[in-house]
User: Fold these one by one.
Assistant:
Number 1:
Amino acid sequence: MSVILETTKGDLTVDLFIKERPKTCLNFLKLCKMKRYNFNRFHHVERNFLCQTGDPTGTGRGGESIFGLLYGQQAKYYEAEQVPVLKHTKPGLLSMVNVGDNMLGSQFFITLGDNLDFLDKEHCVFGEVVEGHDALLNINEAICDENHIPYQDIRITHTVILDDPFPDPPGLEIPIHSPEPTKEMLDSGRIAADEDINDMEGKTAEEIEELIAEKEAKARATILEMVGDLPSVDAAPPENVLFVCKLNPVTTDDDLMIIFSRFGKIVNCEIIRDRQTMNSLQYAFIEFDNPKSCEDAYFKMDNVLIDDRRIHVDFSQSVSRLQWKGKGRGVEFVGGKAFDPNKEDYKMKDQPKREQSKRISSDDHPKRYAPQQRQRDFQPRDQYRGGREHREGRDGRDRREHREDRDGRDRREHREDRDRRDHREDRDRREHREDRDRREHRTDRSDIDNRGRRGGERDHREDRYNRDHREERHNRDHRHQSDRRERDHKERRRSPERSHKQEDVSAQKRIRRSSSPKNSHRTK
């Protein structure tokens, strides 16, 4: 025996347990035939547990059985059937609600979870859903408040009896049409079942984009709070902190302090640096004492040229200075002290001990990392110096180092060119010698034939030995000359004055040798 329950979430086809629960099935079928379940809403929905309906008032305290309609208030409820025992073992089982003392009325619920054994002795199972489980899943996913009441009404719109084996009791008047719902039944204070929920209706495209971005930001903040990266969902970055990026590596904290201090009092200014090398990461945070100064700097300093770099300015999105004080006690903003251009103690010195233990002062970095870095990477920055003079000195040092590197590269290239030239000359001499050997070999062979084989071979070996000896001496002299030229070139590159002195000494020796008596006698 089947009944179709048409709901706002879909149709549910129910099979009734006629043999096991005849009285309960009679009550349910006749109430469906009297249209008593039409427009009843599911007033209690618990996800993966149950959804309850059957109360015309929608409060969970109303509803009466078919016997109460026929025989009066003394028969409003009837006693539940307990034999045989039917258990709540799976989703989709229909069970009558026990109103007390094992009495039943018109309210029933549908299970949404497995193995609900604790309901077996209290409530009476009388049917199951055989079709429409997708509608049951939609009901299970309904959004409810803390009292498990759905924000949008879910109602039974109509009931259709496919088969009724029970005869109608005397005095039962079946309505021809479905009765109209009363105003009290429809006025639940919730979103109507047929109402289209559209938050974007009547808004412009910009407002819709802003609303979507706000929802996405809130969802991300919730996730960050769950993983522990945010102290609370409502935590927001301070409005008086400015983010500056695309800085020149030579720009210092003092430079930014002086440049941005014209917009207002600066509480703290810090260029973020590498922990080991203390080199600038080319972005900084500037904290003003009020949001108005921060806004003025944002509108005036974006794309401004500082140290030959176009900087970018934006409001800070960092919450690193928000310190969580504990559950229910909120957060505390850890800031610095006001900036005075005439003083040098504007750095953050009144920090908590926990943070001071993590931070290494600029004076300790040269001692700690001196073996790893060059000395110029650890210039003390606790005293104000002329930024331009400091940069000019550093630029001059960089130019000298670049010039030395270029000279070294030129020397390497010169040496490589000389090696390639020597290699070509050796190859040419070797080919020339081989050609000459082949010509001489042909000549010698003809001579040997004329003079005799034995004497010709001995002469040929002597000639070849003498020729090889001369070539080896020539190559040795050529290598000595190349090495001497290279040494002279290095000496001239290393010390021009010394080379000039050597040339002067050589010239004096030549003059002295030419003016000696022996040479003068030879000249005569």
Note: Residues 336-362, 369-385, 518-524 have pLDDT under 50 and may be disordered.
Number 2:
Amino acid sequence: MALFLLYETSSGYSLFLANGLDEIGQNTEAVRNSVLDLNRFGKAVQLTAFHPFESALDALNQCNSVSEGIMTDELRNFLELNLPKVKEGKKAKFSLGVAEPKVGSHIFEVTKIPCQSNEFVHELLRGVRLHFERFIKDLKPGDLEKAQLGLGHSYSRAKVKFNVNRVDNMVIQAIFLLDTLDKDVNSFAMRVREWYSWHFPELVKIVNDNYIYAKLAKFIDDKSKLSEDKLPALTDILGDEDKAKEVVEAAKASMGQDLSPIDLINVQQFAQRVMDLSEYRKKLHEYLITKMNDIAPNLASLIGEIVGARLISHAGSLTNLAKCPSSTLQILGAEKALFRALKTRGNTPKYGLIFHSSFIGRASARNKGRMARYLANKCSIASRIDCFSESGTTVFGEKLREQVEERLDFYDKGVAPRKNIDVMKAAIGSAKNKDTAMEIEESPAVASAKKSKKKKSKSDTAENGEAEDKPTVNGGAAEDAKSEKKRKKEKRKLDQEQAVEKSNGTDRVDADEQNGTAKKKKKKSKDRDREELQDASAMKKKKKKSKGEDL
């Protein structure tokens, strides 16, 4: 059986015929040895056809289709022209070797050409790739490299440009940065505490918050200079006057050692860095909340912005999270425990990242697994709504949160929750009502904007008229009189034209009415004549009948 090889390059499609495979015995080791030697490989593999691409755009389209496992019309025509035809009802006496199995399956579905993709075919294609420049005579030494570089750049640029999940990347990067900032701020704050404790050790016991401690370390600087004059500033930082007095008293009776001015400057600078990092962390947290409300509002309202962002980042994107079943979403983040349990045949984990939600913490120890399963189900529904819905609303997320609350009450108190169908119907109804309310709110705003535009246009025209009516320095009064006369003449003409049109309209109406009444009179007279003729004919018939009876 003959074996043809389809090789896709950046310059076009090429078809090779592999000869002498029975002698080799389709041994991959023998093929590997013969690939490096062009004389041996050239005898086994020969070029039969080559179809160059028309342009760089055509090459990009063909590359995209091959990567997606789709056979284009150009590839189909190329194969049908250069491969032997397969008769209906008979097996093909050849096969086509393909690098991508998806493309091979699509070719077989459409053209019924048998395709194969295995190690033997891949080794032959590796040899074709190695010696491809020598198979085609018209190619210059650097043409193939330039085509490969250009196609690679355009393919990667198109993938980045048309990336569906590019909006999700902002959330993923923000949540990663937030986690790293938490670790860094905590470690730096501990370093400030240890460093400044050499000078003022009693401050650690009074102030527990890291951010406030860094603020105080920068404000106090040297404890010996701290006096009661600084009490108002200390109360502003601490928010408590008693604590401020306690800090002042502790500074007076402190057991810490004195630090040189250079050491105090370094401590102050480091405390300022910690403060800047913690402030940036707050801003980043606000940014993440707004971004989650834009991208996944239902998921954020159901489980929270931080947990929802962690789920999206762990899945890779919102679409990947939407494709996950609820059982997979339930244990996202607990993959190590899952595979350890499968390996040791132990109990599988009940929850992963979902454990950070407040619902599972509120559930009892016996119902934590049930609550995790139910919450994962609702999270999968919310993520699918966020991913595939056109308009972003939080109605569904709020309703799903109500369902989770009802389930918690059911586990604790035994109160029967509502059915999912009823809740979803109520959510759809409320979403429609919100849309109509938005439209109603927008319509008066649009009308008021139009009115304001009309008023502005009228005011502009009035101003222009006033500006025109304003007298000029040279002969302004005469020009005003002329303009007034012209306006009066134009008004008279308009009045005359309107009067003529009205008179014409009334005349037409009167004429139509007269014509209508005349036609009605004519019809009535004709009807009367017909009735008189019918009566006369009936009288004649009666007279004739009476005469006949007399005879």
Note: Residues 456-479, 503-514 have pLDDT under 50 and may be disordered.
